[in-house]
Write a structure and sequence with these properties.
Distance between the termini: 52 Å
Main location: mitochondrion
Enzyme class: translocase
Strand content: under 5%
Number of domains: 1
Helix content: over 70%
Order of helices and strands: HHH
Family: Belongs to the complex I subunit 6 family.
Number of helices: 3
EC number: 7.1.1.2
Largest sheet: none
Number of strands: 0
Subcellular location: Mitochondrion membrane
Length: about 80
């Protein structure tokens, strides 16, 4: 169990690095999705499945709004 929690923590840090290091909004959203899934899996492994579900739904809604906004800004040349 300790190794699993350590693994989820390392994956969460790697997901955050993916978000911070990519200039494209498409890959940033991919990093956010990976990070949120890993954070929710981490919470489930610690015994909090309901909080994990609420967190995932909140992140998913926020990420979709941020993704649509950033894609619309990059797609419009003016």
């Amino acid at each position: 169990r300790t190794y699993l929690v350590l693994f989820w923590g390392i994956c969460l840090v790697l997901g955050a690095l993916e978000v911070a290091s990519n200039p494209s909004p498409y890959y940033r959203v991919l990093g956010l999705v990976v990070g949120s899934v890993v954070a929710c899996a981490w919470l489930v492994s610690l015994g909090a499945p309901f909080i994990s579900l609420v967190l995932f739904l909140g992140y998913l809604g926020g990420m979709l709004i941020a993704f649509v906004y950033s894609v619309s800004l990059t797609a419009d040349p003016y």
